[in-house]
Design a protein that fits this description.
Radius of gyration: 23 Å
CATH architecture of the domain at 119-255: 3-Layer(aba) Sandwich
Strand order of the largest sheet: 5-4-3-6-7
Helix content: 25-40%
GO cellular component, one term: cytoplasm
Protein name: ethanolamine-phosphate cytidylyltransferase
Shape: globular
Distance between the termini: 43 Å
EC number: 2.7.7.14
Number of helices: 12
Largest sheet: 5 strands, parallel
InterPro entries: Cyt_trans-like, Ect1/PCYT2, Rossmann-like_a/b/a_fold
Structural class: alpha/beta
Domain Cytidyltransferase-like: 1-72, 140-231
Number of strands: 7
C-alpha cells in the first residue's frame, strides 16, 4: 500500500519502532518526518528523541478529522452520519467523542474531529496534468472505500494495459454508494475517498461524484479509450440497466482480475471481530499520551534551576 503512494520512493519493511540515527544513515536519509502527534515507547519516552536532539527531525501538521480511531468508530457504530450532506447525529457525536477514550480525559491526537475538505488540499494531491497525445485514457469507477491493497492491485493491473496510461477514477457520491452497498457504506465520505485515490501513483485524475452509469457523454468528454472494472459484481442502475452498457456497446470494456481477495467488507469484518481489542488499544494509547502531556506541563512549570533538561 505504502509503495503505491506517489510520494514514496522506497519502503523499508519491518523498520524499528524507535527511529535512530543509525537507521537514517543506513538508508541514506537526511532527516525523519512525522506528524505533530506524540508516539511513545513502552516506558513513555518520545520515539523520535534521538533524531530530534541531532537536528534531523521535521514535523508536519496532522490532517484533522480523519484518523484510524474515527474510521473504526464509524464501522462499529453503523451510522451514516459521516456521509457528505448528512448532519452528525447526537448519538454518533457522543460515541465518536468517547470511542476508546480513557477515563482521565481527552487528548488532542487520539480523539475524533471533523474532516474539512479544502481546494488547497485537493491541489496538493492532484497531478494537475491533462492527457497528452499518445496516452491511453482509461476510465475506472467505483466507491474505492477504505482504499486498500485490493484497489491498488486492480489499478496496477489496469496501469499495465497500456505503454502510456492515463487513468481516470470516477468516485460515486456517498448516497449512490449506499444505494448499491447498503448498511452504512461508504465508511469514508466522498472528500476523504478523493484524497485516498489521488495519492495513488497509478491514478492521473479523479472525477468527484461521477455518474453511476458510464454514459456516452462521459466517454466523449474525457476522450476515453478503455473502461475497466474488477471482478466484483456489477449492480444494475436504479432503472435496472447495466451501468457499463455504453462502453460494452463500443467494445471498449474490459474486466480485470486484481488477483486480490481483499475487499472493504473483509476489512470491516476484521475490525468488528476485534472490537474490544481496538477499544482497549485506544484507551491505553490515550492514557499514555495524557501522562506525557501532564509530565511536559509540569516540566515547563518548574523553575529554571530545577528542570531536568538543564
Amino acid at each position: 500500500m505504502v509503495q503505491a503512494i506517489k510520494w514514496v520512493d522506497e519502503v523499508v519493511p519491518a523498520a524499528p519502532y524507535v527511529t535512530t540515527l543509525e537507521t537514517l544513515d543506513k538508508y541514506n536519509c537526511d532527516f525523519c518526518v512525522h506528524g505533530n502527534d506524540i508516539t511513545l515507547t513502552v516506558d513513555g519516552r518520545d520515539t523520535y528523541e534521538e533524531v530530534k536532539q541531532a537536528g534531523r527531525y521535521r514535523e508536519c501538521k496532522r490532517t484533522q478529522g480523519v484518523s484510524t480511531t474515527d474510521l473504526v468508530g464509524r464501522m462499529l457504530l453503523v451510522t451514516k452520519a459521516h456521509h457528505s450532506g448528512q448532519e452528525m447525529s447526537s448519538e454518533y457525536r457522543e460515541y465518536a467523542d468517547s470511542f476508546g477514550k480513557c477515563p482521565g480525559g481527552r487528548n488532542p491526537w487520539t480523539g475524533v474531529s471533523q474532516f474539512l475538505q479544502t481546494s488547497q488540499k485537493i491541489i496538493q494531491f492532484a497531478s494537475g496534468k491533462e492527457p497528452q497525445p499518445g496516452e491511453t485514457v482509461i476510465y475506472v469507477a467505483g466507491a474505492f472505500d477504505l482504499f486498500h491493497i485490493g484497489h491498488v492491485d486492480f489499478l496496477e493491473k489496469v496501469h499495465r494495459l497500456a505503454d502510456r496510461p492515463y487513468i481516470i477514477a470516477g468516485l460515486h457520491f456517498d448516497q449512490e454508494v449506499n444505494r448499491y452497498k447498503g448498511k452504512n457504506y461508504p465508511i469514508m465520505n466522498l472528500h476523504e475517498r478523493t484524497l485516498s485515490v489521488l495519492a495513488c501513483r497509478y491514478v492521473s485524475e479523479v472525477v468527484i461524484g461521477a455518474p453511476y452509469a458510464v454514459t456516452a457523454e462521459l466517454l466523449s468528454h474525457f476522450k476515453v479509450d478503455l473502461v475497466c472494472h474488477g471482478k466484483t459484481e456489477i449492480i444494475p442502475d436504479r432503472d435496472g440497466s447495466d451501468p457499463y452498457q455504453e462502453p460494452k456497446r463500443r467494445g471498449i470494456f474490459r474486466q480485470i482480475d486484481s488477483g486480490s481477495n481483499l475487499t472493504t467488507d473483509l476489512i470491516v469484518q476484521r475490525i468488528i471481530t476485534n472490537r474490544l481489542e481496538y477499544e482497549a488499544r485506544n484507551q491505553k494509547k490515550e492514557a499514555k499520551e495524557l501522562a506525557f502531556l501532564e509530565a511536559a506541563r509540569r516540566q515547563a512549570a518548574q523553575p529554571w534551576g530545577e528542570r531536568d533538561d538543564f
